[in-house]
Design brief:
Length: 606
Amino acid sequence: MMRRAVARLPRCHWLWAWSLGLYVALMPAVQAQAPDPVAAGVYDEAAALLDRLRREESLVGAGVSVLWPGLSPWHYALGLAAREGSSAFTIETPSAQRELTQLFTAVAVLQLVEAGRVDLDAPFNNYFPEFQPYTGGLPAAFTIRQLLSHHSGLPAYYAPGSGLQAFRATGADDAWREVLARSAELTLVAAPGQVYEYSYLDYVLLGLLIEQQSGESYSGYIEQHILAPLALRDTYFSADLDTVPGIARVYREQEQRPHERLRDIPAVGLASSVRDLGTLLQALLQTLLQGGQGVLKPESVAQLFQAQSVSPYDDELGFGLGVFVSRVSGDLEAVSLAAVNGSAHSYLVAIPRYGLGVVLSTNTELNSMKLRAAADRLLARMIEVWSGDAVPPYAPHSNVELTEQKAASLRGAFSGPGGVYRVQQRRGSLRAEVPFLPFLVSVNLVPREADYYGVELRVLGLNVGRLSQLEEIATGLEGKLTTVEGRRLWYWYLQGVAVATLTELTPAPKGAALTAWRERVGVYEAEAANAAYVLAFDADSGNLTFGQQARASRRGRQPPELQCVVDAQLLRSCNLGLLGSGNRSALRALADGRLVDAFGVYYHRR
C-alpha cells in the first residue's frame, strides 16, 4: 500500500540545525551500503520475540512493526483481537493506544506553528485569556512549549463537576472542553518551567488550542491533516473506545474487560493499529533524515523530538514535544512513548540518527517493563546490524561498604510519590519505608559506587525480588543523592532512566500560616465521591498530610500525601524534583471553610 512520508516521531538532543544538513548529504551513500534486514534476520528475530512474549505472558493478541531506513515498515501480528468471537489480531486491528494520542496532538500543534497561527513560546493565556487557575503567587504564564513538554506547572488531571469517576459512567464525549469554564477551580502545583509533571490537562489545553486556531474539531483536524495524508485508516479518537469498529477487546487476568471511558481525548483518546503507528513513525523518521515536506517540515520534526532543557530539577529526564528522550550509549539517543493504562499496552521506540524503530502493542495486561524490555532488545539488535556497534547492556553500579558517612547522609525523611519515605538504620542496614508499597515491611538500601543506592525488597523477612515480578524492578532500580539549588534530592532510575525524585524534608516554617492550617486539621468529605479524607499534622516531619481516611495507615493501600505550607490559604507538595506520576498536589482553603485540591475536587468538613 502506498504510504506518504511525513513528519517523524522521535527527536534528538544534538544540534539539528547543522546535523540535518549533514544527514541529508550523507544519506544516499549510507543507504547504498545499508545492511539488508532480511539477510540479517531482523524480521525473523522480531517474529520470534513476539511469539515468545505471547507464550511467556499468555498474551491474547499482539503485534509488532519494525522500521528500517529506505524500506516500507514490516509488520507482524498474532493471536486474537477478541477471544469470544475468535477474531484475529492483525496488523490492521485498532487497539487502545491511550497516551500515544499525545504524539498526534503534538504534530498538530507544530503544523499550526508552521502556519503562523501558534507561537511555541507564547503564553497560553494569549490564546485563552479566560483560563485563570489559582496561582498562589506563582507566575501564571506557562507557554505552549511547556504544555507540550509537561512543564506547565498544572496538575496531572482536572475534575470538572462530578469528577472523573462519574464521567466514566455518564459523562458527555465533549466533557474535556469544560476545563475552560472551570479553570478557577484548578491550582498550579509548581512554577511554570520548574518541574516535570506528566499531565493529561496539558494536552487537553493543547486540544482546545488546535480547535481554536484551526476552526475544526480536534478529531476532525487530526483526520484531515495527519490521518488522510498518511492513509492511516485504522486510527480513531473517541471517549468510548468500545464503539470503534473492529477494536481489540482488552484482557486482564485472562478475562475480558470493558474499555474505560476517556474524558481527556487529546491526551488519551486514541485507538490505532500497529500498521498505522508504524507508518506514522516511519514517515517522521524519513522526513528528518531525507528532508522533503510531509505533515511537518524537517525542522519542525527536529523540534518535536529535541529534548527540552527547561529545569535544573529534571536531571537526566528528557522530554521533547510529545515523546521521551533517553541516551542509549555515548551520544546515541532514543525517543519513546508508552501507553500503559487499562489492559492494553503499547510501546514505540526509535533511533532518529539511524531511522530505526519498533512498535509493540498488545491487548493484554502485563508488566509494562517486559514489553519495553522486549522492544529495547530488538532495537539494540537492529542498531548492531545497522551500525556494527553493539549496545552495551544496562549495568548497575557495584556494591560498596556502608560507611557511617553514607548512612548519615540518608537517615531522615524524604517527600516523593505517594507521601513520606522514612530512612532508618537498623542492625547495620539502611531501611526505608515505601508509602505506595505498604505491604512491604521495609526496603533495604544497598550502597553502591558514586553515591548510588540499590534496593532489596523484603516482606516478612523474605526477598520479594526473588519471588515475584518485582525482581525486574528491584534489580534495575538505583537512586543517587545530589544537591540542586541548595536542596537535597534523591533521584531514582529504572534501568538507567530517571523515574522519580525524592526531596529531603525540612519542617514547615512556624508562623501564622502553619497555625492557620493546624486549626483546620480534621476529617473532610469529598463532595464528588463518598469518601472521607483526613487533614493531619505529621509531628516527625513538621508538615501536614492530607489523604483518604481508610488509607491513612501503613495497612492501607496508599497513605496520605505530604504537604508543605505556602501561606494560610495554600498547601503544596514538598517534592520539587521529577515526579511524573500524577501525585503532585496542592490544597486550597476557601472562605466558606471548604477545601479544594489542585484538580478541582471540593471537600467539606465532617
